[in-house]
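Look at a sample.

——
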Amino acid sequence: MLDALKTKKKLWFAAALLCVSQHAYSDASPQGLENSGGLLTTTETGELSFTMPYAALTAKLGKKFIKGHEQFNELWVLAPAPGIWGLGPTFNEANCAGCHPNNSRARPVADGATVENGSVIKLGYRRLDGVVLPSHPWYGDQLQNRAAENRVPIEGGATVTYEVSIFEYPDKTTVALKRPLIDIRNLNFGDINDATLTSMRIAPQVIGLGLLEWVPDASLLNIVAEQKEGGLSGRPNYVIDLETEDVVIGRFGWKASQPNLKQQTASAFHSDIGATTFFFSEKNCPEVQTLSLIHI
């Protein structure tokens, strides 16, 4: 719980980095691809283009942005090392920037390479009755390839190769598609079987998420209605806001599994860094790992 209390302030500032644009935006002019962020659109290019704040931020919001940027890059550590305590015991990266370098997306894993540096393996489990669980009973919802050195073992590692296929559109245009073939190895808490579901995820860019959080629910539901008229079947994913306990529309994460940036940030802290918060106060350590750690 102490870790959770310490993390509360860190969580707020990290989320502030993503949210600050929401409070600064006031342009209602028509937007195209070259002006998709309205007044927040920047002409900066290059590796640091996603790290630029809105040029007209107030002094107060500018300080929030700078503080959030510091927290985004700050390394978490294992006690009693100097730094921000709360890392692990198992984790994938030691800070936000480890998955989102310069606020951008991670690089895709090369053919035959190890899954790391912003790419992760998500896990699920299919029971005998066919029900699919969102996490594995031994390894949780995400394979952790790093751990507290000399204290606990890693969960395991993975490499990926790609199977290429050619897809043809109705107009005869073709594209090459790559299907990742995941090889999980070096497991320390028991083997996995065919009931285990795996999927590789690449950390997305985080720039502009405050604008997406500002979109009204009604606008999202209007998009759903328009899609139905066009013969599509898109639909919102309803999730629980852990702070209010209300059922709301999910907006963030690859499957729209989080309702707002604060909870999304807390989820990333928990899954990627291993840090607890007031949202997720229990260590990311399934029961079989806790029992195994007694004997280490």
About this structure: The helical segments are 2-24, 59-73, 209-213, 217-229, 261-273, 287-293. Confidence is low (pLDDT under 50) at residues 21-29. The chain has one domain: 2-215+251-293. The longest helix spans residues 2-24.
